[in-house]
Amino acid sequence: MSLRKVPLIATIVLIGLWVLAFTATHWPMQPGQEPLFPHFDKVVHAAIYAVLAITAMIAATAWNYRWTLLLAATVAVALVGVGIFDELTQMFVVGRTADPLDLVADTFGAVLGISLYSIARGVRQTQELSASESP
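^ thats the sequence. predicted structure below, dont judge the formating
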């Protein structure tokens, strides 16, 4: 595969994951449908947005954006905007409501995903630096 295709593929994966997440959060709920455990939906929201954040960071760096605090903040703000849109549009789906705590979970997930990406990036750079210094 050509390296020129990596940014496009990363962007397509990001959009595909968002479409999947949007569909999952807009699937009509049946009355009386019980979650696996209390606040299960908050865990799911956080997990979805963590994966979206990691994927967004991968896509952004694939497009040659350097990792900076500004990039991380931009991705976080964009995902919070997506979360607001997600919550507001759920009001039009049977059995769904706009829940501010879901937005909190979305925000937590986005920050967690960006943090995990940043840690992994730092570890990789440290390993590359160590490998390049070896005789």
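The radius of gyration is 18 Å.
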